[in-house]
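Researcher: For the annotation table, I need structure tokens for Amidohydrolase family protein. Please keep the output clean. Sequence:
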Amino acid sequence: MGDNFILRGDICWSTGPDTMETVRNGWIVCEEGKCAGVFTRLPEQYKGLPVTDTGGQLIVPGLTDLHLHAPQYTFRGMGTDLELLDWLENHTFPEEERYEDMSYASKAYDIFAQDLKNSPTTRACVFATVHREATEYLMEALEQTGLCTYVGKVNMDRNAPKALCEGGAAASAKETRRWLEDIRGRFSHTRPILTPRFVPACSDELMGELAKIREEWNLPVQSHLSENQSEVEWVKELMPEAEFYGDAYDRFGLFGGAGPAIMAHCVWSDDREMGRMKDRGVHIAHCPQSNMNLSSGIAPVKKYLSSGLRLGLGSDMAGGYHLSIFRAMLEAVQVSKLRWRLVDQDLAPLTLKEAFYIGTKGGGSFFGKVGSFEKGYAFDAVVMDDRGIRTARDLSVKARVERMICMSEQCTMTAKYAEGRRIC
């Protein structure tokens, strides 16, 4: 449970896709890990609490990364000239095989955990590999950072190198159950999430076993959906009875409804798939940098947002190469402009205000009341010093936040809190 304290500074947060609330030189109160409110004048009942005055720095909600692969952090910035399936074969699968070696896995995961801690992200949903021991180590490393995360041991039993196919569906399911037993009650901030890699890598038998595990353990699910046109066609060949890609998950109860689910990308989702995602409450993790790097396409994010689907942002490390969700906000706007200009002029591009919402409250909603400074929300906050972006103008808080999103590398994170606990 977090402490009781107050931050003072220039505060910005969203209450919805079309809002960006700001208070200059305001007060934000944390009580027992939750936000008690943002105030222009500090109420009398809080005047005994300790105050940290940031000196006019920007205070925004902690950012949520709904989709990234921790083992791929080692080769970020490599292979971005390939498309998805070739990239998996030439870079991803060979790298992930190395995580059977715990001396390598521990070194790689320590680097990843520390870099994620030092990023603006306070919450993340993370893929590990098929290796149980390495996945448990990753969870321990993330627990020590104080971040709030979901971590998944990946499941695969086909269409991957033999070393990553876990000896078949029964063996994969058995190892997943052992992982869940091993971590039961061990962590405060790090939770398990069921992680079938994607339909091409999971047989019907394995999907059926995972459905049983999901129900037994009441787990959320994370996977990939309609990322690449070749992948979508491949799923049609592997499961011709499915109405569409998402239906291949839904037939096994792994597509929301009975429990929370994140589907990453959704670049090529049609109206049927969109309707099912809305009905099942699936969260979409939009990963604009990865979609560009792997030539996957441009997701119709504005359509998802205006249709009321649940939507957040992902770095998709290492399809993407940058951990900052500020960067993802900017790129979400940029690619939506290209889609509007080149693909569908009836679909307006995202505004920066909408992208800020998606990266904070939108993605945070997967964790509950997270990603805003509304009363009762978890006190997740990032304090950013934007003085590195020099100007002769006197800017509003909103304008400074916009600049920070566009030029975040010129800003310095001076503090970060998750559930009222100071992380760094």
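Researcher: And a one-line annotation?
Model: The two ends are 16 Å apart (CA to CA).
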